[in-house]
Amino acid sequence: MDTFDVIIIGAGAAGLMCAGTAALMGKSVLVLDHAEKAGKKILISGGGRCNFTNRFAGPADFVSVNPHFCKSALARFSAADFIDMVERAGIAYHERQHGQLFCDESAKDILAMLLAPCREGGAQFSLNTEVTDVRQQDDRFVARTTKGEFRGHALVIATGGLSIPKMGATAFGLKIAESFGLNVIAPVAGLVPFTFTGKEKERLQQLAGISLDVSVSCNHRVFSEAMLFTHRGLSGPAMLQISSFWRPGDTLSIDLLPGIDIHAFIEQKRGERPHAQLATVLSELLPKRLVQLLMEDGPGETQLSQLSRQQVTGLAELLHAWQLKPNGTEGYRTAEVTVGGVDTDELSSKTMQSKRVPGLYFIGEVVDVTGHLGGFNFQWAWSSGYAAAMAI
Ligand code: FDA
Asked: Fewest 10 Å CB contacts: which of 43, 54, 216, 375?
C-alpha cells in the first residue's frame, strides 16, 4: 500500500485549503470525507454567496481560551492573501457592511477555486468514505475506512465543528484528539439564535418579525447590530454574535435606543406636547408593538406631563438596558459554528501540529478558535489550513 505524504480527513473549507496548498508544493495528498461531495458548508454559506472573508479580519475577531493563538496563522495567510487568490481566480465579489466580502455570483466559485489546485497538484479524493479508526503504526498514521486502509506520514484533522448535524457535522475530530490524549475545550453552539420558554416566550412571540438596531451586551462583550424577534425567541446578527459569549443562566442587556438620550427626548416632547401619551411618543422611536410590550415593564399608560423624574430614569434604564434571560439557544441544529474544540495549548500556533503527537495536525473549526459573524470563520479555515500545509 502506498503511503501518502499527508492524509486529510475533512473536505471542507480548511481541508481543501490545506490539500490544494500541499499538493501544489509537490506533496502526495489524500482527502477523505464521509460526505458525497466536498465543501458542502461553503456552498450554503452566506445565503449561497459565501461570505468568504472579512477585509478587517484580525485576532480580536476570534474567540478562544488563548486569544493570542490565532495571530501567527492569520499573519502568515491573511484576508488580503485570500482576496488575492479570489481576484487571481477572476471571481467577482462585493463588500457589504463591516468589511464582509461576498461572491457576486455563487459560493460555487469559491469551491471551484479551492478544488483547482487540488486537481493541478494531483490530490486524491475519497468521498462517501467513513473513517472508522485512526492509529499510529511505526512512524505512519493508518486510517481504517469503509473503503480500506490508507497510510500517511502526516494526518490532518479538518472535520469541522458540530453545527448542522444534518449536513454531516460530527464530533469525530474531537474524539480523535481525545484518543491521542489531547485536551478538548468543551464545545458549545455559537452564532446561534436564543430561545425562551413560558410567559417570556409568549410575550416575545407577539413581536415576531420586528427587526431593529440595538447594542447587546453580556459577559463584558458588546455588539451593535440588528436584532430580530422570531417565533422562538431572538435572532439577527447582534444576537448571533453575543451568543458565542453567552452561557446558560446569563442575562442579556439590550440597549434598544443606542445613542439616544431618553431624558433629553422626553423633556423635549414634554415641552412640545405635555398631554401626549408616553406610548405615542415612544412609537416615534420604536415599533408600536414593542412599545406596547415595554409599557408592561415600564411606567404604563401615562401622559408626559405626569411622568416623575424617577419614572423617566426608570424608563431610560428599561430602554437602554432591557434585561432578557434566554432559557437556551437553538443549539447545533441551526448554529453557524462551534465554540470550543481542540485546546490550542496542545498545538503549535505556527503549524497547527500537535505538540504531543508529531505529524498530527488540527485545522479549521475543530480547533478552539471561533470567529465572529462576518467571514471570520472561513478566514480561520484558510489561515490554519495554509499554516499546516506549509509545515507538512
Ligand atoms: P467544514 O464543516 O467546512 O468541513 C468539515 C468536513 O469534514 C465536511 O466536509 C464534513 O463532511 C467532514 N466530516 C465531518 N465529520 C467527518 C467524519 N467523521 N468523517 C469524514 N469526514 C467528516 N463562515 C464564514 O466565514 N462565512 C459565511 O458566510 C458562513 N456561513 C455559514 C452558513 C451556515 C449555514 C453554516 C452552518 C456555517 C457558516 N459559516 C460561515 C461557518 C463556516 O462554514 C465554518 O466555520 C467552516 O466551514 C469551517 O471549516 P472546516 O473546514 O473546519 O469545517
From this structure: 43
Identify whether the C-beta of residue 54 lies closer than 8 Å to the C-beta of residue 79: yes
Specify whether the backbone of 160 is left (phi greater than 0), alpha (psi in -120 to 50) or beta.
Answer: left
Provide φ and ψ at 293, rounded to 5°.
Answer: -65, -40
What pLDDT shows up at residue 2? 78
Ligand 1 mean position, distance from CA 342 (Å)? 16
Taking the CA of residue 226 as centre, how many other CA atoms within 13 Å lie in the half-sphere pointing to its CB? 10
> Among the atoms of ligand 1, which is closest to the Cα of residue 39?
9
What's the Cα-to-Cα distance from 92 to each of 99, 102, 294, 327, 383, rounded to whole Å? 16, 9, 45, 42, 22
What is the structure's pLDDT at 299?
79
- DSSP state letters, 285-344: TS-HHHHHHHHHHTT-S-BGGG--HHHHHHHHHHHHSEEE--SEE-GGGT-SEEEEEE-G
- pLDDT at residue 174 is higher than 90: yes
Share of the chain above pLDDT 90, in %: 96
**What mean pLDDT, rounded, does the chain reach?**
97
- Atom of ligand 1 at shortest range from CA of 38: 9
Nearest Cα residue to 282 out of 269, 311, 224: 269
Q: Which of 156, 68, 158 has the alpha carbon at shortest distance from 344? A: 68
Query: Could you give the percent of the chain with pLDDT greater than 70?
Result: 100
With 80 as the cut, is the pLDDT of residue 1 above it? no
Residue nearest to atom 50 of ligand 1 (CA): 160
Geometric angle at alpha carbon 288, from 282 and 292, rounded to 5°: 85
CA 233 to chain centre: 19
Sign of CA dihedral 83, 86, 90, 92: negative
pLDDT band at residue 196 under the 50/70/90 scheme: very high
Q: How far is the CA of 13 from the centre of ligand 1 (A)?
A: 6
C-alpha cell at position 238: 447582534
Report the distance separating Cα 95 and Cα 54, nearest Å: 9
- Structure confidence by residue, pLDDT tens digits, 270-300: 999 999 999 999 999 999 999 999 998 877 8
367 lines ligand 1 (CB under 6 A): no
